[in-house]
Design goal:
Number of strands: 0
Structural class: mainly alpha
Helix content: over 70%
Shape: globular
Number of helices: 6
Length: 144
């Protein structure tokens, strides 16, 4: 989480704040997430993409902070109920764009511009990355 948040905060201190640089922050955050998901050091497998995502989300203030905190809450609840990390991660990842859209519409944020399509794409990548682990867990536990 710290690495994802740190890279975004570094960019925010260097660049001016407008729509184009905000989109650049999103792309840099995505690069940090992908770098953690498909680590060269782990032969492009088994990184910490969800933790890096949480750091990026919490670092992009104010747009992603509340949706990010809610998604982290979703992860905690799902994990406490099921004890399956990959399932909690997938549901939290999928809930984040929904929370962002709902809170953004309520607050008048530009939700239908660059941010939402990038978030949906990121959620699809995260869910695809965690789906095999959730499927294996269900198969190993007899579908429970």
């Amino acid at each position: 989480m710290i690495a994802g948040s740190l890279i975004v905060h570094c960019m925010m201190s260097i660049e001016q704040r407008d729509r184009q640089t905000y989109f650049l922050w999103l792309l840099i955050g995505c690069a940090a997430i992908l770098g953690h998901m498909f680590s060269v050091f782990l032969r492009f497998k088994g990184g910490k993409g969800v933790a890096a995502s949480a750091g990026v989300i919490l670092g992009l203030v104010p747009y992603f902070t509340w949706p990010g905190l809610l998604a982290i809450g979703v992860f905690i609840v799902v994990f406490m109920v099921t004890r399956i990390v990959s399932l909690g991660s997938m549901i939290a990842i999928a809930s984040f764009p929904v929370f962002y859209f709902l809170i953004g519409r309520w607050r008048g944020w530009p939700v239908l511009q660059e941010q939402l399509p990038l978030l949906v794409f990121s959620a699809l990548i995260g869910a695809a990355d965690h789906f095999p682990a959730s499927r294996q867990h269900c198969a190993a536990s007899g579908g429970h």
